[in-house]
Amino acid sequence: MIALVLLCITSDPWADGSPAVEYGPGAGYGQSYYPENILGPPDPDATPTAPSFGEDNLLTLGKDGWVVLEFTDNSIINEPGADFTVFENVMDTGSGYFQECAFVEVSQDGQYWIQFPWDETTLEGLAGLMPTTGEDPTDPSVSGGDQFDLEDIGLEWVRFVRLTDCGDAVSDGGLFDLDAVAAVNWSTGIEEEALSPQLSVTSPFSSSFTVTSEETGILSCYTIDGRIAGHWQINRRSSTLDASILPTGVLLFVLNESSFSAVKLLL
Ligand SMILES: [Ca+2]
Ligand SMILES: [Ca+2]
Ligand SMILES: [Ca+2]
Ligand SMILES: [Ca+2]
Q1: How far is the CA of 184 from the centre of ligand 1 (A)?
Q2: How far apart are the CA of 37 and the centre of ligand 4, in A?
Q3: Taken in order 93, 96, 100, 106, is the CA torsion positive or negative?
Q4: What is the CATH architecture assignment of 11-187?
Q5: What is residue 225's predicted lDDT score, i.e. its pLDDT?
Q6: What are the per-10-residue average pLDDT scores of the chain (267 residues)?
Q7: Could you tell me where in the chain the CATH 2.60.40.3080 domains are found?
Q8: pLDDT (0 to 100) of residue 206
Q9: Relative to the alpha carbon of 57, which ligand is closest?
Q10: In the chain, N or C terminus with fewer CB closer than 10 Å?
């Protein structure tokens, strides 16, 4: 049980590792910070007009260069709508977006890859089109970046994402700079099978969060060192709770001392 809890609370929606990279001409930027600069959440300070910069935040792949990201503590899963988001340092110039694009492929085993279809005219289907907003990276309605839906290619889950600089294949601003890849719909596997599908806690980035549960009862929140951080009476299937009283870091939510869910509170 302890091991399951630990696995559960150490999982996150971000990419966890990068098993392979091949740089192309023009690469170099960010290489001394690889892979940390492309793992974890996107740069929280990025805005559309002041996008992310700094080698500790970004990795330039170089012309036709590519990088593989692996999700080890979670899988991206197909649920209604977009399932993951790729963040580049796209800039809103006032008259348009400065875009540097990459092809997006996904894989379940890291061997067999499926590329998302893209449009030569609109560039839709590529990464590197929309700026990062700095809002919750796991919520496509506010996060910015470029969303991808596994439904479009007929896969129910993936663990690998490969980004390949478009090189001369499209006419864009230049070389793709990867910030991060965030899962929108994700599962630890364990949470669903061995633990409790009936409790889910989302939106760890905002000042409130949403609790969805099949049961009503007492919801308790614990810090990673076991201190209680708050409790609430849950009366409905979906409740919005104030997160401003909670400490940041990994929090464990427990409903009726049985079902639980973990989130990492970053703000
Ligand atoms: Ca992860
Ligand atoms: Ca989907
Ligand atoms: Ca860029
Ligand atoms: Ca980054």
Answers
A1: 11
A2: 4
A3: positive
A4: Sandwich (2.60)
A5: 76
A6: 48 94 98 98 96 97 98 94 98 96 96 96 97 96 98 95 97 96 85 50 66 81 81 81 77 75 61
A7: 195-265
A8: 60
A9: 4
A10: N
* pLDDT at residue 224 in the model: 74
For CATH 2.60.120.260, the residue range(s) in the chain are: 11-187
Question: What is the Å distance from ligand 3's center to 91 Cα?
Answer: 8
Q: What is the pLDDT of residue 204?
A: 52
For ligand 4, the distance from its centroid to the CA atom of residue 78, given in whole angstroms, is 24
Which residues, 6+ apart, have CB-to-CB distance to 134 below 8 Å? 44, 45, 46, 47
So what's the pLDDT on residue 10?
A: 67
Which ligand is in closest contact with the Cα of 183?
A: 1
**pLDDT at 241 (0 to 100):** 79
Tell me if residue 146 falls in helix, strand or coil. Answer: strand
Ligand 1 centroid to residue 186 C-alpha, Å: 9
CATH code for the structural domain at 195-265? 2.60.40.3080
Q: Is the dihedral of CA 100, 132, 45, 159 positive or negative?
A: negative
Distance CA 138, CA 182 (A): 6
240 CA to centre of ligand 4 in angstroms:
30
Q: Give this prediction's pTM.
A: 0.71
Ligand 3 mean position, distance from CA 264 (Å): 28
Strand partners, 67: 21, 163
Residue 39 Cα, ligand 1 centroid: separation in angstroms? 9
pLDDT of residue 236: 75
Cα(16) to ligand 1 centroid in Å equals 5
